[in-house]
Amino acid sequence: MATRRRMLGAGLSFAGVGLTGVSLLPALNAHGATEDLAAAAPSPVQPFAGPMPLVPVLAPVSTAHGRDVYEMTMRTVTRSILPGLQTELRTYNGQFPGPTIKARRGRPVVIRQRNELTVNTSVHLHGAAVPPRHDGSPMDTIAPGAERVYRYPNRQAHASLWYHDHAHHVESENVYRGMHGSYLLTDDEEEALPLPKGAYDVVIGIRDAHFDLATGALVYRMSDRARSTLLVNGTPTPYFKVAARSYRLRFANHSNQRFLELRLEDGGDLVQIASDGGLLPRPHTTSSVYLTSGERADVVIDFSRYPVGTQLVLENTGFGAGAESAQVMRFDVDRTAEDDSSVPDVLRTLPPLPEPTAERTVVLRMDEDGRPQPRAYIDGKLYDPDRVDARIRSGASELWTVTNANTKAPHNFHLHLVQFRIRERNGATPGPQEAGLKDTVRLLPGETVKLQATFDTYRGEYVYHCHMLDHSAMGMMATMKIT
Fold it and tell me: pTM for this structure?
């Protein structure tokens, strides 16, 4: 058995202090109060008491006419997450997290979504290039009792995407209460590689939660620092039985706000092969993977380096994790297995970036002075669905300079419609983990990133926002119009 090592220091820092938790300093809640890290409750369950469930793959109801048709119903269910208690959830098809959809480039997917909840909903396929009426706009909602058909053309390259609610002012609570799931898009380029496949290609969705320990209910309030129970595929701190061979693990951070830094407890290698927008140009061997809210990273772990019987903890390390959220899950190596997979030295070739046809700046800022009703802004403005904030020519390749103007609060930044490339982080070339296509990017206090996006697919209005969903619900969102 691998022995548990001391907590590693954070791989990132700001003002000399590591950052990996929800935010650098106590966060503002909806009423302007602050909550100290000490307010986080201890984990209500014994770690590694149950197995990590594999998220079911949804079967289409039709595969005729060259497309896959699915049906989903958004409904409230109760599930046992904590021992002996029932938790009410908002779900897709009664599953928590929602079912995984497997799609293929060039083969459209159609999903009929029926809303049997008591709140408005809007389904956004995060990271996808889709026409505006199928993007899940914050104001383009499905009323209770109504339904909506979403069409996804799947013309883009492979990527580990995800879907979640995006109805403005309720998206934060809807996602927190369970409305999220994975959408795996593949293509010939990805499938031709000898990466782990089948049972050895596993979706691992991680998020945090705050439970009422008397009733099992999920407690929701804005910027809650007590979301200290980590759920993996909907289960608190589970174990996962693996064979002594290589696995492709598709990590996704489905938390509303929490930042994760994932490490094996023995400091062993993680080989990152993909980020938000699919495979990296080359694999990146690292000891940790950093994911802000909404980000994804695919890694390969070779468990053959451990003897059968090893129990190896995946940790969330760094400032803000605390004892209650330091352990994510445990890998139990319980058998041997043949392995003909490998990670090539070159995973894909991305085209060179063209010269930008336009440049623009974006400034993210939120109130952090303790006022009773804090707000969050893009370029000093609250989100207004009737206002267009950026007008973009179709076919343009733009360079965006995005800055976090806060001194305490971290943010991240998500663009709808496009996958972008990060050209600079704080004036320097980004690291290899950010060398691929991205749709969400980290911005710690005072940080600036330059990203380049090409708007050559669909015309219309789309939003861009902080993907710490409590921040976007507070107004940190804007609209771009491609014409």
Answer: 0.91
